[in-house]
Each structure stands twice: as C-alpha cells, then as structure tokens.
Batch of 4 targets.
Target 1
Amino acid sequence: MQIAQVIVNNNSYQTDKLFDYEIPTDLFRKVKRGIRVMVPFGNGNKRLEAYVLNVIESNSRNSKLKKVLAVIDEEPILSEDQLRLVFWMRNQYLCKYIEAIHCFIPKSMVNKERKKITLLDHSWEEVLPSSQKKLRNIITTLQALGGSAYLDLLMQHIDYKEINESIKVLLEKNIIDIKYELNSKINIKTEQYVRIKIEEEQWQPIISSLKRAKKQKILLEMLKEVKEISVKELLERSNTSRSSLNSLQEKGYIEYIDVEISRNPFGDKKFDPFYKFEPNEEQKKAIDQISASIKNESSETYLIHGVTGSGKTEIYLQLIEKVLKKGKQAIVLVPEISLTPQTVSRFMGRFGERIAVLHSNLSDGERYDEWRRILRQEVDIVIGARSAIFAPFKNLGMIVIDEEHEHTYKSEQTPRYNAIHIAEYRSHLENSVLVLGSATPSLESYHRAIEGDFTLITLKNRAMKSNLPTVEVINMAEEFHHGNTSIFSTELLKAMADTLSNHHQTILFLNRRGHSSVLSCKACGYTVKCQYCDITMTFHSAEKRLKCHYCGNVKNIVKSCPECHSEEIKYAGIGTQQIEDLVKVNFPKAKVQRMDMDTTSRKGAHEKILESFKHQEIDILIGTQMISKGLDFPNVTLVGIISADTTLNLPDFRAAEKTFQLVTQVAGRAGRGLEEGKVILQTYEPNHYSIVASTHHDYESFVKDELMIRKEFHYPPFANLLLLNFSGKNEKQVYAIANSVATNMKYILYSEGFKELDAILLGPNPSMISKIKESYRYQILLKDIGIPFSLLKKAVKYLLIDNRSKYIPQGITCTIDINPLSII
DNA sequence: AGCACGCCGACT
DNA sequence: GTCGGCGTGCTC
C-alpha cells in the first residue's frame, strides 16, 4: 500500500506534523512529493488542502487510514530543493511546516474551503416552533443576506457563539443545506482566443456555403491567415461583432480557447536602455574573480565591500550577463524595491523583458502572475525584496544581495527568516554563487569574511573617479553655547545658501517623520501618549493632528495639559515636517520637497518625487532613511544630516553600527558628479567612535572598535541570540507566563549541567515599547555563552513547540525570533 | 484551525 | 432542569 505523508493547510502547532493517507490506486502515478492534494480531515471529514512531503510504501495494511481524495497539481508545486529548504527552515527558525511552505507559494494559490449555508424552500415556520428564537434568528439573518451565506459572514451577523450546534439542528430538520465551496483564489488571468478548425480540403465548399454571410466569410479568411488570435483583436481588426463569430462556432468551423496571459505590473512603462560600460580596474578584477566561480558552479559566497558610488550595480549586471549566457538564472535582492527604483530601472534597462519584479505593493494577483512567469521559465532574472529569495527558479546560477547590511532582509513575521541565511543555504543546495554587496557590510558578514567563510572583495574608489565627499562634524552643544538655538547650525545654513546660489542640489536627512514627536506640558511634564500603545504621539502639521506611529491612532492636538490645565505645551523631537517648514522660512525662494512615508504613500508618488528631483525641479530634498540608499544624482553636492543622534541613542547593541551605516550611506549621496560633495553632520556626540569613523569614511577602524565591544559584551557576531516575545491584553498574565517559561527554561538548562544562567538568560523584561495596540509585551533574551546554541533551541522547542499548550494559554501570543536584528 | 465533548453557572 | 459559554483534546 502506498501512503502519502502530508502537512495539512492548518496554521496550528497541534496539526504541525505529518499525517498519513492511503493513496488510492487510480492516483498512484499522480501523487508525488511536493504536490498538493485534498484530504478528509478531522471528525467531520472537512476537506483540506494538504502538501505531500513524502510518499512511502507500507506492507502492513492499515485499514484505519483515510484516503487521498484528489490531487490539485499536475506537477509538484514544491521542488526537491524547496522541500529540503522547508525542512531546514522548520529546524532553523523553529517554525511550522506550513509557515515555511507558505514562503514558497503566493497567497492567492492557497485553497481554503468555505462553508456555504443555503436556506431551502421549506415552510420552516411550521416546523420550527416560535419558541426556537435562536434558530429563527439564524433563518431571518440568512434571508436578509439573500437566502445563502458563507458561515464566516453569517457569524458576523449573529452574536452568540455556538452557531455550529444550531446549524446542525437546522440541517437535520432539512431547513438548510450546507455546501463546501473551494475558496480558490487562483486567478490565472485568461483571454479568449479563437482557433480555426477547418482543414485545407474542406475550405472551398465551406467558403461557398457562406455566400450570404459576408461577415463570417471575412472572419474565416482572416483566421485562415493567422490560425489563432485573441477574440478581442480579431473583432477589432475585422470590424465585426461577436454574433458572427458565435455562429461560426456553432457550425464547428472555429473553437474558443482560453489562453493564459500575464498582467504586467509595470504597465506600459518604458525603461531607458542602460548601456554596458567598461569597468575600471577594481570592477574588472571583481568581475573576473566571481566569474570563475560562476563558471565552476561552486557555491561560493563573496562579500563586496565597495565605497558608495564604486559601481557595484555594474558588477552585478555584468555577472548576471555571464550567468544568463550559461543558461542559468539569477535572483537579485534589493532592500525595498520602492526605495530603490533607480537600481530596478537599470536592470530593466539592461535586460528588458525577461525580468520579474517582486515588490511589496504588488496585488495578490500581480504577485501570482510574476510567480507564474518565473515557473514557466519566461524570465531569467528576479529582482525583488526579501521574499524573492524563494523564487522558483529551476537552474539558479547566482544570488545577489545588494545593501546586504539592511535590516529588511530579516522577516518581521514568522517564520522570522533572514534572507541572507536562506540565500546561503540555497546557493549551497543549488550550486550557485552568492554575492553580497554593501558600502557598509554588516558586522556579521564582515566578520565571516575575516574568518574566511566569505571571500572579501574591496572597492576603494568611486567608479566615476569622483572623490568621496568631505564630512564636517558640527558639535551642536557648542552651537548652542554660541547662542544658536536653531536646529540648523550656522555652517549648514551657509552651505545651503551656497549650494542654492550655485544651482546645485541639497539633501537633508533626518530619521524621524512628522512635525514633533513629543508634546509635553512645560508646567508638569505630562507627555501625550497613545492610549493603546506605550509611545508618545507625533504631531503632524499637515493634518494638524497627533498620530501614533505604531497603531495609526489619530488624536486632536491638545491645547492645554489634561493634568494641570497649563496652556504651555512644548513641541519637542523634531521631525521632517518641521524641517520642511523651517527650510521654507529660511529659504523662501527655494523649491523644497519632503520625502517620507507620509508623502509617498500614494502609488507612484515615490517615482514622481525622484523624477522631479532628477530634472532639478527641486532644490532641497528633505527625507527620512528612505533617501539614504540607491539615489544617484550627480548634481547633489550637499548633504545635511540634521541629527545623527536619533539612531545613536537607541538602547540597542546595534545602535553604533546603524548610525555608522546610515551616516555613510546618506553621505554617499553627495558629490557623485563632477563637483566635489560636502556633508555636514550635526550631533551632540562628535567624539563617538562611529561618528568619527564615518567622517573619515573609515569602515575598517569602525569595525575594529565595534568588534571589540561586541566580543566583550558577548553580542553577535560572537554570540547567537534567541528572543522570546510574549504579548497579551492582561499585563499580569503576560508577565506570569513569561516568568514561568523563564523558570522552566532555567530548570532545563540547569539540569543539563549549565549553572551560569545569568549570562545566558535575561528576563523576562518589559519590551522597549511595553505596549502596542493594547497588548502588553515582555521578552526573554537567550545568548549562547558557554552553551551550544543548539541546546538553547532544543529547550525552546521543548517548551514552546512540543508542549506549547501547557505553557502558553489562549490570549497570550508568544513568538520565537532566532538571531533577531534588534532586541528592543 | 475547526470541531466535539463535557463541565458549570445562570436563567426560564 | 437546560441553555450557552468555555476549556480540553483530537485530527492520519
């Protein structure tokens, strides 16, 4: 007997195991590893979609096994390599099978069965005594919904919870009918085509028979030429109507067929060709070195550390050309497509049609189309954000991860994977080259390069022979002592004036949106906080309202303090909106544009701003970290960093690294053309090692200092971290649960012989933001100091996965984050 | 996740 | 008594 071992499409820890089903003989040949099937599941034999992870042969006849009902796919939806990745991910990230599987499959492909309840035409009034109020209520609700409704919709209209019982009673009484409908969101977009069915020798008699049907004759003659054409096009070209075509079909001369087409997410957008250019010495060396691995199909990892403007993109482009020549495919990851439109357009401009683009604001349908294009091998290159690492290429030659230090490569939802981590494993599985690139590599990657895991390639010079900009640090404390209370230092204002008069462009950077992030009472110190989150509300001057940046809650501004009724309200914590206002006051004639989440939420707004900046319709561009990467505008000669301290002061072990990266990246926007660039960096901590290093563009010295600190305090790359997050509405309960997990954890580790637990387990502590959307948050941090990381993971798996129901009650959410990028 | 079963307080 | 809410345990 053949048995399929499947994972059912249920996102629950309790069903996260392989279930055995008998494969009926007629499905023997169709059921394979990686295919989807329908199976009966549970007491009611609810039909569920399931993924076949194994097919085994069993000698003993187990009559208790249920049978596979049907297969969904012709071909496996998950390849052998992808299956291997699924198993690996579950182990690595302690996630469920189904969570790993869903990474590989677009949402719109997942089938879910919905219960549809239909009222039958019976005189239910007689059958149901009027005392049965509940049942009658269900029926009247059903009538109001038009006689039939899906169960979930029906439940929204009825406020008691035990609806299933009543549904069952109604079904027994034959008052309603239940149907299961597959809520398949598969939306292969098709277009109707016609195909001619007439053989050559039949042609003459048929044509003569159509003497009186002029239009039909025209249609047939056109079809004879092209054999197959879309209905729409045919009708347009022939100037005929559908009815003529229909009568041809009735006579059997033609047939209609549905042909799959793709929606193009880029519409008719044309990309300027981006011509290949001759690489300089450094670039050429890098290309040659990596090409060798592409040629040998060795799964080597390269880390390209190249200063801003060193032409990393051109290296990627030329390497991809080599990959394509070998008949292989390439994946390019960029931090966030919408933030790097220039990079994307260069790829499109060089390679044209055979690229699929996966960015975060594609609709489900568009995402599905791109995925299909990849699967049908219509593209050779995928360029996309984090999730593009799962692109279903069959012959992968290379993975490029640009700006590899970016935190967006780490998923914020379970499974909390790191795309670099996945890329490493995937390149290993599929013998493809992995190329990481950054002007400011993450300490993890750089450390691994030093250790010899990655091959380091350094680019010291800018490709266009321009120099790196000079960076001038302004001590804002001194500025203040000299009587300048403005947020702009004298130097910055002067430099902005100079740049304006030279008709060059300025970028001002501040990593905080809104107008003011803190409103507080001068008299009693009260600060306005969100009622749902433990966070101060930010004043937005455009809407003249207060917004919570965590839950989106909006409040009117407070004119007087709700505590002491003082009317002295202080607006502190400067954001980009306020900068914009102040710039306009200081430079009334300058054309100023702000670019942050608030000005770019509309589709296409992003490109529009960059386009007008490119055409020099903007003198001063003000923005958040959105402007820190990928922008390449030669006329920008001044970059002003309003405050480097916002990131520096975060209570996170990566604060210094983030600051160095951000400052270096932003500074890199200046002086990319013929003119020298200048950066003015304002800070209250001019002597901090990350500030000093970034002013000298000295990555190596920063890394040296930072690595020493990381080693001393046992942080990555010298330790692995495991963060457990607990949240729930009842603060006391959240703490109690977190505490019991911590206690049990300590007990397990202690009994394994590890006595120094204070360094290994920290917490539970309230999270940095202790409340978000009315949920209280606590966390436990685990570090592998003097203990194998695998053992920590094993203990976590035992407590929070294998015995989850014992430790985590309903109402408490607990997430596991392996090597989080941030522990705040 | 969904569903059945069984316990228990709150009502006609 | 019994209705309905809620916790528990199971699904090949």
Target 2
Amino acid sequence: MSAGRILVVDDEPQIRRIMRTTLTGAGYEVDDAKTGEEALAKLRDFRPELVLLDINMPGMGGLAACRAMRADPNVAIIMLTVHNTEAAKVEALDAGADDFVSKPFSTPELLARIRAALRRVPVSQSSPSRIRVGELTIDFGARTVTRGETASHLTPKELDLLRYLTQHANEAVPHRELLQAVWGPDYGDQVDYLRAFIKSLRKKIELNPDRPKYVTTEPWIGYRFNGAVESS
Amino acid sequence: MSAGRILVVDDEPQIRRIMRTTLTGAGYEVDDAKTGEEALAKLRDFRPELVLLDINMPGMGGLAACRAMRADPNVAIIMLTVHNTEAAKVEALDAGADDFVSKPFSTPELLARIRAALRRVPVSQSSPSRIRVGELTIDFGARTVTRGETASHLTPKELDLLRYLTQHANEAVPHRELLQAVWGPDYGDQVDYLRAFIKSLRKKIELNPDRPKYVTTEPWIGYRFNGAVESS
DNA sequence: CCGATCTTCATGACTTTTTCATGGTTTGTC
DNA sequence: GACAAACCATGAAAAAGTCATGAAGATCGG
C-alpha cells in the first residue's frame, strides 16, 4: 500500500518529471496535471489526498484552482511558486491552501511539509477498498455491492455516489455537495441526475427500495447514508 | 465571540507581549506560557485551538513540548525559531508541528498561516452540531430535535430559526434580526413569516405550546430562547 | 451495430413556505 | 375605565417547491 496519493499540478513538464521521481521514490502514488482544469478533473478520478499546486499557470491560475478544490475538505493543498513575497504567501493561504513552499525548495523540507499536511487530512489514511455496513458489503475495487447472497455491479457514477455518501455516513449531505463531488463543480444544480442515480442505487442496495434503510432522503437538503461503516 | 484561542509559548517576555498585542488585535483570545511545562498545563486549562511554539526554550525544549502536545489532535501547532535551516524545519514538522515560521516573520504572513492552520482543526469549527438544553436535544447535523422519547424532523427554515435563537440564547432577539438572519436582508418586515414558524417550532419543541418554556415571546421586541445550552 | 451507461423530461404525490383573515392581548392616551 | 393602535397566536388555504418514478433520447466503447 502506498503512503498516499499526490497530484502534481504544474505546466512545466520538467518540474512534473522531477516531482514524480521524487515523490514516487518517497513511496507516494503520483499523478499529474498540466492545467487547473485538468487538475479539477483528476481530483475526482485520482482522488489524491494531497495536491501540489503551482501558482503560475496559463488559463485558470493556481489560486482559482485552489479555491475550487477547497470545496473538498478531504484533500490537502500545498502551493508552490517562485515568488517568495509576503503578499503571494498570504494570498495563497487565504485561497485555502494548507501550506506554501517557494521554489527552489529543498526536497527534504517539501517532504516534511507533505507529511505534516497529510496528518491533517481527515479521511485520507487511504480509504479502504472494501467496507461492510449491516448486511451490505461494498467492494470499491471490484465495483460491486453484495446484500446477503446477491451481488450487483455498480456503474462508475453509482460507485462514486455511494463512495461519497459512505465517507460522510450518518450526516445529511446536500444535493450540491454530492453533485459537485461526483459530477464536478459545474453540475451543482442538476438535481435530476441525483434523483435518477439514487433511484438505481437504491434498487441495488436496498431490500425494498420503497422504504430505503441505507440511503434515505433528507427532505430539502439531500441524502444520507445510515449505518456503522466498518472497513473489511 | 472570538475567532479562536491561541496559546503563545516563548521564554522571552518581549516576544510574548508583541504576540499578545498582535493576536488580540486580530480578534483572537490569547494566553501565554514561559516554558514547555507551563504550556502543557495551559493546554488543559485554556484549551487553545492553536499553539505558537518557540523552539528554543530552557528546560523542556520546544520540540519535546511539541511531541507531547501532538497527542491531542484538536490543537494546531505552529513552531517558531530564529534558525531558518532546512534541518530545523524538517525536525519541527516531523515532531508533529503543522507549520513552521522562522523569525523574524512578517505579521500578515503569520496571521495567514494561523488562519490556514485553524481551518484544519477538527473540533473548533465554531458551532457544534449537537446541543442539549434541558430535556431537549437538538441535532443540527441530523436536522432533528428530540424531547424525551419523541424525535421530530425540522424543516430548513425551522432549523435556521432555531439555530439562530440558540446561538443567541437568553437574549431577546428582535424580529428584524431574526428575519434577516433566516430569510435574508430583504425580509426584515415580514413579521408574519416569523409568527408562522415560531408556532410550528413550538409545536415541535415545547411540551405544551400554549405556555412555551424554551421559545418565549419578548413583547414588542422579538423572541428569546431560554436555557443553558451545552454542546453534546 | 449493440449494449451499457448517462442525460433529460413529464407526471402526480407530497411537503414546505407564503399569505391572509380572525380574534385576543398589550400599550398608551384621554 | 374607555378607546384606539399596535401587537400576537392561530388556523386554513393558496402558491411554490421537492420527490420518486418511468420512459425516451443521447453518448460511448467495443
């Protein structure tokens, strides 16, 4: 098992290559992105625990990307830049970054700051790939859910939805938050998507979908996953 | 209400004084300690959300104090030192510090780092999600209120109203203030909304809604929530 | 082309919010 | 005390919004 997943966001290929080597050598799983837009997409797919984010990037700048990512509390953000000015630091930190490192940086210091930041990520410590809750077994690796004897295959969106709900078990998760977590930041209003998928989710995990037990609706707010989640 | 409690740990009186002035000015509640031992004691009594910890101190050093404090995940630690070496930074961060600032530091940067670190402290996060008052339990996460055995579901407006009232418990909150807090700044005059919702609130939380005990009306002013609110 | 998945939409049942009319209460003035 | 004016509680109904559902179209990879 890796020490964690890290997403490197920088427009310079050379930096990405160096970072990848360094971090992989330190035991992390690494993916990279060239732009802020790409980073936001990979945030959903790769699910990093930490993002190393360059401030100076063409298109959506690092600060804008940082603000967009901050919506998810389950990821730490360390910003990087060549500008070692006080104003830059304050701006980055107030955009939601957890830490700030100026280039050129020393590798040991960067690694130490990464370790420190990862300690604070709530879920992290790598989410287990299989969990049990009540008579349910959800296998995120195999993309299946088993209730009693019957196993069902979960489609990608169903899986993402279920994952986010179980990660926030026993709290009412707002529509908007769910939509943004599963579909991306631009889809906060497409409540219909949610309803359609909640329906098919329930068909697969609930004993009788008319009176849901695990995925209940929280009227006017969103949905909620009920049950004591234990890794398995 | 303060922005948070901060404990300043440094053996030089002058630093403590400057820090206290700066942080108090930024809206924080401040206490200080001269030694690591004293800091550990104040950690229990003062319950700071964040500790500013000097590395160089006589007696128990800053690093040892940091390691001891790290047992409590509900406090952020920022270490300070004049030694701006890489080794010092790595050592501090691996001792459990969340961040590292070298002296002399810029005040805006320090404040920004404090804000960033406070975002990560789990508990603090201002208002608790569950409170008890008398025979009432209000769960803002689950959006329910429980009186004795009976639990009721709260609609969004009811919840917002109750939240604002409990946050200002034992004071008369004017109509206008309540309306603006719950409905928005343009609704200061819609006293009818208030009356309708106060009524349904009372139906859910009062034993007999005719003689309200928790939500009483403050004639000619507004409403008031009575009772000792304790987080739970 | 086929099948699986995702998106879009219309429908009726349901809940919350808004609006309003009624009658009772308090306050202040004569 | 009588009275008007402003306030308050209540119940009921209209308006607006939300939910589950089924089904049809769009998209994508093989």
Target 3
Amino acid sequence: MGSGNAGQPAADPVVPLAHRVPDLGALELLLAVARLGSLGRAARERGISQPAASSRLRSMEQQLGVALVERSPRGSRLTDAGALVTDWARQVVEAAEAFDAGAQALRGRRDSRLRVAASMTIAEYLLPGWLIALRTQRPDTAVSLLAGNSAAVAERLLAGEADLGFVEGLDVPAGLDGAVIGHDRLVVVAAPAHPWARRRTELTAAELAATPLILRERGSGTRQVLDAALAGHGGLAAPLLELASTTAVKAAAVSGAGPSVLSELAVGEELAARRLVEVPVLGTRFSRDLRAVWPAGQRPAGPARQLLGLTRALP
Amino acid sequence: MGSGNAGQPAADPVVPLAHRVPDLGALELLLAVARLGSLGRAARERGISQPAASSRLRSMEQQLGVALVERSPRGSRLTDAGALVTDWARQVVEAAEAFDAGAQALRGRRDSRLRVAASMTIAEYLLPGWLIALRTQRPDTAVSLLAGNSAAVAERLLAGEADLGFVEGLDVPAGLDGAVIGHDRLVVVAAPAHPWARRRTELTAAELAATPLILRERGSGTRQVLDAALAGHGGLAAPLLELASTTAVKAAAVSGAGPSVLSELAVGEELAARRLVEVPVLGTRFSRDLRAVWPAGQRPAGPARQLLGLTRALP
DNA sequence: ATGAGCCCATAAGGTGGGGTTATGGGTTCA
DNA sequence: TGAACCCATAACCCCACCTTATGGGCTCAT
C-alpha cells in the first residue's frame, strides 16, 4: 500500500516540512539578530562564529526566497518581511521551548526538587507553559513529571511519590485536598466538510449519543465525562474509531473520518484555523473543573506552592 | 549533564535549544510512527529507509532520555511518555506548518491565484492558520501575501494589485467595502514581578497615559488605537522603549523592562503561561474590529471568496 | 511445519551542511 | 588616522544522517 491509495488526504508532502522550514538553530539565530541588531552580536550570544551566523542567515533567506535583514556596515535591521518571519519563527521556538520543558520534566528523576503528577490533558496542554514560567522564576528547580489518570495521580500523592497533582475529573479523589484552577469544556467537533458543520440547529444530546464518534480509548478522562453526560440519553454509541492518543483522534477528525468530542484545550488551534468546526449541542454543557490536588492537610509549600501560584491565570 | 551552572537567568542557554529538541524531521517521523504504528511504514511515508527511521528514533529517545515507542516484532506502539511527547511534538510541527504557509505566501509572486494584503497583526497571528486551512481545501491555490498598514492595504486593493485585504483599523478605508470577521482587544500587560501585576484596583486611563510604556514604533496599528483612546486622558507619555517588532516588545515586557500594551492575539500564549499578566483598565475598552475588505462593489469571488469563508470562525 | 511477509536491529560506507580560522573591505568616531 | 565596530569570502574539517546489505523474531496461510 505504498502509493496510489485513495483515502489518504493531504498527508505525505513531496518535499518534507523539515526541508522547507529552517531548523531551530537558524530560527533562534534570527530571533537573536532581531533582538540585538547585529549578526556578530547574535553569533556571540549563540556561541558560534560570526561567519557561521552570516552564512546561516543567508542560506535561510535563500531557502525562504525572501530577504530577512538589511545588512549595513553598522548593523542589521529586519526588513518588513523579516519582522513577519521573525514572529512566525518565535511561535515555533516557543513551541519547542514547551517541548523541551516537558521532556526535561518527563526524564526528571525521583530526586527532583518538585515532583508533579498530572492528568493527560493538563500535562499536554498546560503544564509545559507553567514549567517555562517556573523556570524563569526558579531556574534551578528540577521538576519531574508523571502523567496518568486521576486514580494514578491520587495514588502517587498518597504514596508520597509526588508533591503536587493536577486532575481534570469531576470530583476530588478521596484523601486529597484541592483547589479549582480553571475549567475545561468538551466540544463536539467535525471537519468543515462534515454535514454537522453546516447544521443550523443545535445537536441534541440524544443525537450525539446515538452517533458513532472518533474517541480516545476507554479510560481517558475525556471519555469518562462524555459517558457520564450522555448516560441519561441512551448511552454512548459504539465508537467509530478508538485511537490511542489525542493527536491521533484530532488527525482523524481533521481528515474527515467523522465527528469527535475533545477538550477545548486540544482543539483551540484547529478551531481557529477552521480545520475543525465546533458543533453546538443543545442544553448539555460538557464542562469540567481543572484542579490542583495534594494530600489532605498538607498544604503545598516551597516549589509546589510556587507552581500552584502560576496556575491561577487559566483560560 | 546540565548540572553545575548557578545563576544563569534563563537568557542564553548554555546548551542551545536546538540541541535539546529533536529537529523537525525527527518530530515528523515520530508523528508518522504514532499514526501508522510501525517504523517501516513511517519511514516509507517520510521517504527514508527503515534503518534510518529506526536510528533516528533511537537517537531521539536517547537525547530525551525517555523511551517513546515499544517495539515489537509486529509493530511499534507509543509508550505513555511517548504519547505525551508526540502531542508536544505536534505543537511544534503545527507552528512550523504555519511558518511554512506564511513564508510561502510571502515569497509568492504577482501571478499568484490569490493576492492578499493584510495588516501586521492579522498577517502574524491569523493568516497562516487560514492559509493552512485553504491549502487543505484547494491545494493548488498559490497565495501571495503583502503585509502593511491599513493605508497600504487599501492602496493595493484599489490599484488592483491585491484581491482581498484584511485590516484591523477602526473604520473601513474609503473606496472599500468590508465585513467584520472578528475582534481584537488591546490588553495592558506587565511581567508578573511588576507592581502593576499585583494591583488590586483597576488602572485608570489617566494613569496608563501617564506611564512610559514599551511600544512598537509610531505608525503601528496598535499604537494608533492606543493614541486615540488616551487622547482624552492627557495623551500618551513618551515611550519607555520603542521597538521594531511585536516580538521585541513582548520579549522586553516579559523580561520585566516595563509594562506594555499589545494585541490579545499577540500575548495569548504569554498570558496563559503567566509570563505576562493582564492589568485591568477601568472603563476604557481598547477594542477594535478585524475586517476583510475589498474594492467597493466587487464582491470577492473564486479563491478570495473561499478564504473569506474560512475567516468567519474567529476567536 | 515451512516459506512468505511483515516487523525491527546491526554493520559498513558515502556525502553535505554547518562549523571553524584567516583575512579583507566598509563605516564611524575619538 | 587608527581603533572598533560592522559584514563577506575562502579554504578546510567533521559528524550527523543518509544509504545498502544483511539477519533474526513473530505470525499466518498453505
């Protein structure tokens, strides 16, 4: 099934993305040039030689087919296009920083200063940002992250193997205290081409329950909330597809395989770009609280307290 | 490694980000493995050999210090950590796709099928997403982008050098028709350590006007709105810093140099992660419409109409 | 049970992108 | 007019990533 298959949508690029987008080093260099106003200065900050910076930037311009900086004997300024590209580059670099913060926590060992246990959705979409913020305040705080469902989070906390937990369930697990730090909403989404995207009337809960959906595997927090909410409407139909990760579910929904229900946090990007469309549902609000939790009676202190403070400005 | 350095204030990484984060090719490979469930299949899709994929993935795991996939004689599945990393990777890849879509439009020539002129904020934060969406619907539509202020956008449209424009001004430029496609709000932001971040009372407009801010250069749309809104409150004080790009302004604000006023679109990320804090302002709403515009009487058709349709689901 | 057809791993060898140092020419300013 | 910035070019080096060739484990149909 190598070539000539029909169903595959806009999948395999002829020339891969990695060849059309400069690598992270080049993007960081561009940001440094924008900030410092000189190739040499930027090179020094990034720890490379000035000719290396010069050639790197030049090949980036060639690759993009756009002049990015105006070089002069007394410095370099961004062109108009360069300013635009620089801001796009910053988005990529920020995503990479979140990746790095998350990965670092994931590899963190037991002796970390701060051990966090978090549910999947929170670990995926919120925690990396918090860790970046924490790093700017306390650069030397080593953080370890363990991701799992609510029960696993509670278990770790009660066993003394984690200092702070985050859960997205409907209630606080027994033995834990908690504080609501934000809210999450489940949204019904479909590809723009799907009939549901063009409905002019709201979906009824019963209709939703009766329709096969693309879902995460049984046991995911999202699915539990959905199950509970639709229990009174005939129960959830057998899934159209059952996939292992949010990523996979989104990809399937975008490609038009069918409608899905996902956290607002997960599909913000897709909705904004109209790769997915939200389908309003009558009456039912698939809302759930996001909570920080800790062993009952033991108020978070030290790094845990600081991280808790960072989480209070949620969307 | 990584232990040893003490006070380094998160500025220039000792070991650069590019060395701690796998490159785009590796991240795309990981996404393909997650989707297809097999190294060999993923390798084929990405157009490389199976050993290359195997070794690439292995070195990524080594770099991150985390096992990402469980290999078995009948395929590979993501580990729990791998699922998390894959979702973080997807964020990076999506940002890179936006970068690519934007860069491609920027290099687009005059003979493109669809010529767009857009103001800076829209070009920076919204257009790339729209272009990605457009590409999935009409892969063969070549788009060119020209970014400038409202006057420049109007000029291009009236000269017949652009098919569709986007502006964020307060009114529709003369000679053009338009439709509101969304709204943008200017927010006052400060670093979490700034006194304003801890205020319990709302800022007055007069107070804001009297305080030196970090701003874009004169002429930016953001600054015009701000000027107009504060004209009745003593006028804007001389800026604390005047920088050339939104990126630079944000960086300065995050580093604590002072308060700034920026589009909500530009600082969403920073607010969510608490790298910046919004400072409420009494009474005044710095709101502005986002509009699609076209020459009066000439309703958009063809690709322009299609793009217009994509923009109707704004935040 | 046995070969086909997947899966993945290891080994050995090529190539080019990105790095380096060395050098030179332009502008600004004390 | 020399010092101190800016940037560019040239010649060289290295390793990260690719390739092809090969082998072993699991599953399944014949």
Target 4
Amino acid sequence: MDDHHVEQKNTYLEEVSFTSLSDCLQSSLVMDYNSLEKVFKFPPYSSPFQPVSPSSMGHIVNNPYLNLNSNSPVVSSSSNEAELKENPNDKSDRMEDNEGDQHGVGESSKQLTKQGKKKGEKKEREARVAFMTKSEIDHLEDGYRWRKYGQKAVKNSPYPRSYYRCTTQKCNVKKRVERSFQDPSIVITTYEGKHNHPIPSTLRGTVAAEHLLGHRGGGSGFLHSFPRHHQEFLMMKHSPVNYQSVGSMPYEHGHGTSSYNFNNNQPVVDYGLLQDILPSMFSKHES
DNA sequence: CGACTTTGACCTGCGC
DNA sequence: GCGCAGGTCAAAGTCG
C-alpha cells in the first residue's frame, strides 16, 4: 500500500522535476494565496482566463497571463497591499477574535461576534495554503478531524464549495474544499490557519506518511493525504515570504505581466500556508 | 447520544 | 443604495 502510494507520489514529483517533496516545497511551488486568488480568481474556474485545457493544470500552464517558459522557480507574490485590502474586518475574524467564545455558541455568541468587533479594527488574515489534488474524494483524509459547517454553490461552477473547521477545541483552522469544474478529478483544498495541536494519533497513516517524507513533527495534515486514496498532489503554494526575492509578481489582474514560472507544463500550485501547515519543511527555506 | 452533515437564512464586503 | 457572491451560523436530520 505505502509502496504504491510512494510510487504515485514520486511519479508526480518527477513530473514537476522534483526528486522529493521537500525539494518541491523548497524550490518553487511558491505562490502566495493572494496571487493565486488573482490568477485563479480562486477558485480557478472563475479566473479571467479562457478555459483552455481540460485540466486545471493545463489551465494554469496555458494561462496567457503567466510566463511559463522559464525554468526558474516560481513565484509569487502577494502584495501586502492587496492583502490589507482584502482584510478589512475580515469576517473570519469574527470567530477567531472571540476565541474563548467560539464554543459559546448561541445567539449571544453570534451577536457578540457581530457587534463585539470595533469598527475599522483589522486583523491579519490567517495564512492560507491551497493545493490541488487529483482525487475522486472531495474531502481528503489529511490526518485531522474536520467538521463541515457549510457548503455553498460556486459561481460558474457546477460543484459546490464545502467549508470545514478543525474539530479540535481552540483550533481555528479552517479549510475549503472544492472541485475544479474544468477537471472534476481535481480537488482544490485551501487551509487557513495553523493547527495548535498534534495530529490525532488514532488516525492511520500518520507514521507512514512521516516516514515516507522523512519528516516528523506535528502539523502537516496535508502531507498525510498524499499517500492515501489515490490522490495525486498537484500543486501547492506557500506564503508571501520569498516572492520578492524571486522576483515578481506584478500581475494585477489582467495586466498579463505576471511572472510565474513553472517547470515545463507541470502542475503548479498553490500556495500559501504550507509553511504554517508544514512549518518544519519551510523553516529551512525561509531562514 | 454524541459527532457529524445538510441546508436555508443571515451577514458582510465589493462592484456598479 | 442595490444586488451579488462568499462565508458562516445554527436548527434539523443522519449515522454509528
């Protein structure tokens, strides 16, 4: 089983020219969430590009707004400005700001969250990481326990987006799961926030996955999803951190000047918060 | 019976 | 100001 998965993972990584997941994470698959959002208009299907290929990857790769020719590492950017802009009173704060209150449920909590926040008060948005996985399963097993708290139809997509929250008390990590309508076999998962607890040990695969990745340490739920369920990791992105050093990113919506670089038409991906989810993997990269 | 899902309503930000 | 879309809440339903 594990062998099979390992094989699968390697295959994929090989495609993107990486010999290991770490490589992959540490070299180029770096785009920050906002960038992706712009590129994809996150979700991808509502992106400004023409639907070109049947697959999301093709979609990205062929995106006229992206420079995919270079072999250089990717990258991205998210302008902090954009980020700030997006954050005004981020709704997601409602709950997060009320930490102890999150379980206080009921109207009181609802009202509190609605009125308790000061006007104009801003809070930084939680780091987010998104990645695409080829899988028939929408909700990928990643080692953590999640509770679905909502589902919404997505504009221009026949597939709904599901919202999940980590069930561990005091852990405000959330994730969104949606399927690419261009390639229904691809599931786009976006994590937001950091887990402040270890992966539930009762879940299978944890050790195997860590072993497989030669990595141990709490945290990275998503890693555990690789070896399971016939999933193929397609892309991921991580946060803002180095996009500047890599160069780039001016792609303000439609300006077509973006500088994302990918290794040959390969999957790419997404971003943002991997470093939060996989702190140990990024520590090197960022230090 | 607790944990989780479903689903309609509600809230908020944003563009026009 | 209005309408739309994304995100969240919470009651009701389902499952083990």
